């Protein structure tokens, strides 16, 4: 949808907006923003807002990491996409727009995640492929009491999918889904999850760029509405080591450029999975040990990536196998082609959604270009498969630490090539500084500094 500047300015005034947040996502997965007054909106929508190059070298702990090309010398611009303008229902007088990071030549300066995803989308289009996707998020609700984050739940824990669990958070969840809908996001389902105070909301798929934009808006909305209720919402992958982890499972499907014919579904094929779909899965699986540095990238992420934890610790794929990294989801009755999709489970909300989704699509396209074979689908939990079964499925273990994941990414020439040397240097520099910092501290430090960042 094309929206021009005058329409955005008119909408802001009509809604009584005073401050507009120009938002972007840094390489640590943190949503950052600079707000402008509505009186400045018209020309700022055109020229953007200034941002020091050094801002992209800030890590999760707010430390500026010394990286060549990312010193506090020179500026870029946060240039908004007018179509992403949203009035924020939980923040009276406020709105937001999502931005590309551009140089003075109005081109990607080399370290813009949103521009990276745009480039990968164009690469897919050159193959006659368009991607539909959505992130399915889990998070914890908590109260901060004497410096501790206590799960917001019944004393003995409301059972998963229980009526009492829904009653406990009814008002908050109704306000949350209303806030999402008001921003044009289609809500499909809301449940109370396995963990104490853990929630999940599923939203409808969109084109790939809108899916990543929606992930930014979704996290902002969940946290903003929770604060109005005196609660904190944590998207940290494992904020409570004794509880189940929180993922941001990525569901995606492949379509022709018109968006009318699924390239993933073939009713004559095994499980309905097309030949192109098998190649795409094979590409993602081949690069998965490196992809986790982008899709489950934080130090805390690796507490979630454990065997038999519904998050996957291997490169396995399968049909409706919730222990596989890539689950081919069974379609719905009378909507087989429309609902056929793949769930990528090795994903959490500590990721920059533009980098994560872009890298997954790039890996899948590599599988298509090279006509890779994914091996046999896993029919059981990979932790219980024999060595022979693992070999037939081409199943390999995933990295078990942040540092190991970053090593795999650095060694993956294909993925590094898609990111480019400049963005790769920034990403590895920032993330390695986090890995070193957290490795030197205790568990309490890790949880405290992951809990509210994402």
What does this structure look like?
- With 454 residues, this protein is an alpha+beta fold.
- It has two domains: 5-109, Ubiquitin-like (UB roll) (Roll); 120-451, Glutamine synthetase/guanido kinase, catalytic domain (Creatine Kinase, Chain A, domain 2), CATH 3.30.590.
- It has 15 helices and 16 strands.
- It has helices at 5-14, 41-47, 113-126, 163-168, 170-182, 208-228, 275-295, 301-304, 336-339, 353-370, 387-392, 402-411, 413-419, 421-439, 443-451; strands at residues 19-25, 31-37, 49-52, 75-80, 86-87, 94-102, 130-145, 148-151, 187-192, 198-203, 206-207, 232-234, 248-255, 317-319, 326-329, 341-344.
- The strands form two sheets. Strands 7, 8, 9, 10, 11, 12, 13, 14, 15 and 16 form a ten-stranded mixed β-sheet that branches. Strands 1, 2, 3, 4, 5 and 6 form a six-stranded mixed β-sheet that branches.
- Strand 9 (187-192) and strand 10 form a beta hairpin.
- Helix 5 (170-182) crosses helix 6, helix 10 packs across helix 13 and helix 12 (402-411) packs antiparallel against helix 14.
- The longest helix is centred in the middle third of the chain and has 21 residues, at 208-228.
- The two termini are 28 Å apart.
Question: What attributes characterize this protein structure?
Answer:
Ubiquitin-like (UB roll); single chain; 454 residues; 2 domains; six-stranded mixed β-sheet; alpha+beta; Creatine Kinase, Chain A, domain 2; 20% strand; ten-stranded mixed β-sheet; 15 helices; globular
């Amino acid at each position: 949808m094309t929206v021009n500047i005058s329409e955005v300015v008119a909408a802001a005034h009509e809604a009584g907006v005073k401050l507009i947040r120009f938002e972007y996502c840094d390489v640590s997965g943190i949503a950052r923003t600079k707000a402008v007054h509505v009186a400045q909106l018209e020309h700022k929508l055109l020229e953007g807002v200034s941002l020091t190059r050094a801002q992209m070298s800030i890590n999760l702990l707010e430390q500026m990491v010394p990286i060549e090309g990312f010193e506090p010398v020179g500026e870029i611009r946060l240039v908004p996409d007018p179509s992403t303008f949203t009035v924020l229902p939980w923040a009276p007088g406020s709105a937001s727009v999502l931005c590309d990071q551009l140089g003075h030549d109005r081109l990607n300066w080399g370290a813009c995640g949103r521009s990276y995803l745009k480039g990968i989308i164009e690469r897919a289009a050159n193959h006659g492929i368009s991607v539909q996707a959505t992130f399915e998020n889990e998070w914890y609700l908590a109260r901060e009491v004497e410096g501790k984050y206590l799960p917001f739940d019944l004393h003995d824990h409301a059972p998963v999918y229980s009526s009492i669990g829904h009653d406990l958070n009814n008002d908050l969840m109704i306000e949350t889904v209303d806030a999402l809908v008001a921003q044009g996001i289609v809500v499909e389902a809301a449940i109370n999850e396995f963990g104490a105070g853990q929630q999940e909301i599923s939203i409808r798929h969109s084109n790939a760029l809108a899916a990543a934009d929606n992930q930014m808006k979704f996290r902002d909305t969940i946290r903003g509405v929770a604060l109005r209720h005196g609660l904190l919402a944590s998207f940290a992958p494992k904020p409570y080591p004794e509880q189940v982890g929180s993922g941001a499972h990525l569901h995606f499907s492949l379509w022709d450029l018109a968006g009318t014919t699924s390239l993933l579904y073939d009713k004559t094929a095994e499980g309905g999975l097309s030949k192109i779909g098998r190649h795409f899965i094979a590409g993602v699986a081949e690069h998965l040990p490196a992809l986790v540095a982008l899709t489950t990238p934080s130090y805390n992420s690796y507490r979630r990536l454990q065997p038999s934890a519904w998050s996957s610790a291997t490169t396995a794929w399968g049909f409706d196998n919730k222990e596989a990294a890539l689950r081919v989801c069974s379609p719905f009755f009378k909507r087989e082609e429309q609902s056929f999709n793949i769930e990528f489970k090795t994903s959490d909300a500590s990721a920059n959604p533009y980098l994560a989704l872009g890298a997954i699509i790039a890996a899948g396209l590599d599988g298509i270009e090279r006509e890779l074979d994914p091996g046999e689908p896993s029919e059981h939990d990979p932790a219980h498969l024999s060595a022979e079964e693992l070999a037939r499925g081409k199943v390999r273990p995933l990295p078990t630490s942040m540092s190991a994941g970053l090593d795999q990414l650095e060694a993956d020439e294909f993925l590094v090539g898609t990111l480019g040397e400049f963005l790769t240097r920034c990403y590895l520099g920032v993330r390695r500084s986090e890995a070193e910092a957290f490795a030197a501290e205790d568990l309490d430090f890790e949880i405290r500094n992951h809990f509210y960042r994402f």
